[in-house]
Design brief:
about 400 residues, Transposase Inhibitor Protein From Tn5, Chain A, domain 1
Length: about 400
């Protein structure tokens, strides 16, 4: 069963047949962890020929209603508003929310990156959420290789209105190194932390000459900060701040190059802590590929591909929120592996917990008569089974 605000939005734009098809596809994505059309058709619960099921899904995936702006953006706006204001959250949930990255730093952290899914060059805008990220908007680029400034601005223009009246910070790696992008974000009141390449030249306040970051004398373990600099000789973009950090090497191992960060924030430690959050979008890509839904295995055209990504975004956020709910209820150990005392990080992400928790719930519902017979043969485990069934009941009420 989908959450109430999901149902309201989806039913407003889809017919009953389309809505039920979408709901079944989301369940199949969570259980089988596959977006491959042939796999979905083979398990789609309709008593018709396999080819008929496949054609049914093909027709469904080209519906004009399966639009990011039509179905996905209203859900995002509602969810962001609820999380920002803390409405409908109890005390434990509010305390949990304050520990997340966007509330820890005072911004909603928006990470931009590009990835290759088979032959498709996909630009992804995501929201950093804990150690992972949630998809916001995506587009298949017509060319291979890096995106240009105009494309970056166009996609960010689409996403930034979702956070109207809320503080936003944009994170980008070395592909998005243009000081012109930084100038464009700064003019709109958006904070940014953008990693730069070695060819960045800047002018320190009070000096007349530009210097390149590659010419600076910096060694592993050092941190430098240059406030109020101008970038792009001839354009004089700025003033910005340049933060440089080279992680200390340990036993001769460490990064080969330092981080060169262009930002409009004023605290170097905060800048570096925020930039580390960019790794969340890499985790999102992994979850979409081999770690979750195996998106690269699908063989469809671009229109159906974008529709499948939309379905995957719906399923991904549902699984993430489900895993977050399991941790709040302290029943996550029924869904996945616990954190060992030697571990500094959790064994499983909220997405993974939600995915495994839903699969376990589905298996218990499907095979309960056999599970009940097995429990009857182990009377000495009765108390443990009662606790497990109580946890199962809470999982089923998660939404």
């Amino acid at each position: 069963m989908l959450p109430a605000f999901y149902q309201t939005t989806l039913r407003a734009h889809l017919s009953e047949t389309q809505y039920l098809t979408l709901q079944l596809l989301l369940l199949l994505l969570q259980v089988h962890r596959q977006v491959k059309l042939s796999t979905l058709a083979s398990v789609f619960p309709q008593p018709i020929h396999y080819q008929s099921r496949q054609r049914h899904l093909q027709r469904f995936l080209v519906l004009p209603q399966l639009s990011v702006k039509l179905l996905w953006f209203p859900l995002l706006k509602y969810w962001i508003r609820q999380r920002q204001t803390g409405r409908q959250l109890n005390r434990t949930q509010r305390r949990r929310l304050r520990k997340l990255k966007h509330h820890k730093f005072g911004y909603w952290l928006v990470a931009i990156d590009r990835t290759q899914w088979q032959q498709r060059n996909v630009f992804m805008v995501s929201l950093v959420w804990g150690t992972h990220a949630l998809p916001l908007y995506w587009e298949v680029l017509p060319q291979h290789g890096n995106s240009d400034l105009r494309t970056q601005q166009r996609l960010l223009k689409t996403v930034l209105p979702l956070f109207k009246n809320y503080p936003v910070l944009v994170l980008g790696d070395r592909e998005f190194h243009s000081p012109k992008l930084a100038e464009w974000l700064d003019s709109r009141g958006v904070a940014f932390v953008l990693r730069q390449k070695k060819d960045l030249h800047f002018q320190v306040a009070g000096e007349t000459e530009y210097q390149g970051v590659r010419d600076l004398e910096i060694c592993p373990g050092m941190t430098q900060f240059y406030p109020g600099v101008a970038c792009n000789k001839g354009d004089g973009l700025g003033p910005f701040n340049v933060a440089i950090y080279w992680k200390r090497q340990y036993r001769g191992k460490g990064p080969k190059d330092p981080w060169y960060i262009l930002t409009n924030l004023s605290e170097v430690k905060r800048v570096m802590a925020i930039y580390r959050c960019r790794w969340g979008i890499e985790q999102l890509f992994k979850d979409c590929k081999t770690g979750g839904y195996n998106l690269e295995a699908t063989q469809v055209n671009d229109q159906r591909f974008l529709a499948l990504v939309l379905l995957m975004a719906l399923a991904y956020t549902l699984a993430t929120f489900h895993g977050q709910w399991l941790r709040q209820l302290r029943i996550d150990h029924y869904a996945g592996r616990l954190q060992e005392h030697q571990d500094k990080t959790l064994r499983q992400s909220e997405f993974s917990l939600g995915l495994y928790g839903q699969r376990w719930t589905y298996a218990m519902e499907l095979w309960y008569p056999w599970a009940e017979q097995l429990m009857a043969l182990k009377p000495h485990k009765r108390l443990f089974f009662q606790r497990g069934l109580q946890a199962l009941s809470l999982m089923q009420k998660a939404f």
